[in-house]
Design a protein that fits this description.
Blueprint: E1 2-4, H1 7-20, E2 24-29, H2 35-47, E3 50-55, H3 75-84, E4 89-91, H4 95-98, H5 125-142, E5 146-150, H6 154-166, E6 172-176, H7 196-201, H8 203-219, H9 221-234, E7 239-245, E8 261-269, E9 272-281, E10 286-287
Parallel strand pairs: 1-4, 2-3, 2-5, 3-4, 5-6
Antiparallel strand pairs: 7-8, 8-9, 9-10
This protein binds pantoate.
């Protein structure tokens, strides 16, 4: 496994791979790898000739006052995990390699980025502009055939798909199911911040989504959302949002049609911001993602 620090090294590698007619898979990460990342790496390893993992804590997707300076980092451990997962190249640039002096471009998806995590009362639309700008840069630098992301960041997945289609990136965007702890908590690098007590309470996030699903089957969407929110409140958690949306457009869902509904939640547990979601299929009343 090779570690590339400079964008120019990445470009040289990409030119060489193009000559060899290899399929390339990219797994973009901000490091502090967990089982969720492992599932993306595994899929990339199975499907592609060459696997590139990017490792970059992207400063432009953090708002002032968010956890950029304390975001968990352990490059040595990440490189060991990447190597044992069969990664061929880790692209780990420095911030000034990605955003050199004079950098002035933003890639922004409108509409989809202004709700849920993008609303002003949450992380704000600037968060997604940071995500789409770095992902566009990674797609340009690595030029992968496939790029892998997790369903836990459902809105991010929708926004990245939109951007890739609008800007005619020829990379296929692959979204893989959320990986969970045994008690249902979605895997996240930020789980590392949780005290044992907060970790225990955080399980209410997934329970609240399961509760929403089961009440929806019996009593419809409004009652279901109410039940889910109540479940969180019982655990002493006030959600930043707890909403039902259609996954492709992120328009508010009414739950009356046959289309799948994304119920998404963001909540702080003892100061740690966590997100999760569930996809509910009204027709069969079965969840399609766990
Ligand atoms: O999901 C993440 O870890 C980040 O948002 C991503 C896609 C690597 C961009 O920095």
């Amino acid at each position: 496994m090779k570690v590339l620090r400079d964008p120019s090294e990445m470009h040289t590698l990409r030119d060489a791979l193009r000559g060899q007619d290899k399929t390339v898979g990219l797994v973009p990460t901000m490091g502090y790898l967990h089982e969720g990342h492992n599932s993306l790496l595994k899929a990339a390893r199975e499907e592609c000739d060459v696997v590139v993992m990017s490792l970059f804590v992207n400063p432009t997707q953090f708002r002032p006052g968010e956890d950029l300076s304390t975001y968990p980092r352990d490059e040595e451990r990440d490189l060991a995990i990447a190597e044992s997962s069969g990664v061929d190249y880790v692209y780990a640039p420095q911030p000034d390699g990605i955003y050199p002096a004079g950098f002035a471009t933003k890639v922004e998806v409108e509409g989809l980025t202004e709700v849920l995590c993008g609303s002003e009362t949450s992380r704000g639309p600037g968060h997604f502009a940071g995500v789409t700008t770095i992902v566009a840069k990674l797609l340009n630098a690595v030029d992968p055939d496939y790029a892998y992301f997790g369903q836990k960041d459902a809105q991010q997945a929708t926004v990245i798909r939109r951007m890739a289609e609008d800007l005619e990136f020829r990379t296929e965007i692959v979204i893989l199911p959320t990986v969970r702890e045994r008690d249902g908590l979605a895997m996240s690098s930020r789980n590392a911040y949780l005290s044992p007590e907060a970790r225990e309470r955080a399980t209410a996030i997934w329970s609240s989504l399961l509760e929403t699903e089961s009440v929806f089957a019996e009593d419809g969407l409004d009652a279901a959302l109410e039940a889910g929110r109540r479940r969180l409140e019982q655990a002493g958690i006030t959600p930043e949002y707890f909403e039902a949306r259609y996954p492709g457009t992120l328009d508010p869902a009414d739950g009356n049609g046959p289309d799948p509904i994304l119920v998404a939640v963001a909540a702080k547990v003892d100061g740690t911001r966590l997100i999760d979601n569930i996809l509910i299929e009204p027709k069969s009343l079965k969840r399609s993602d766990r």
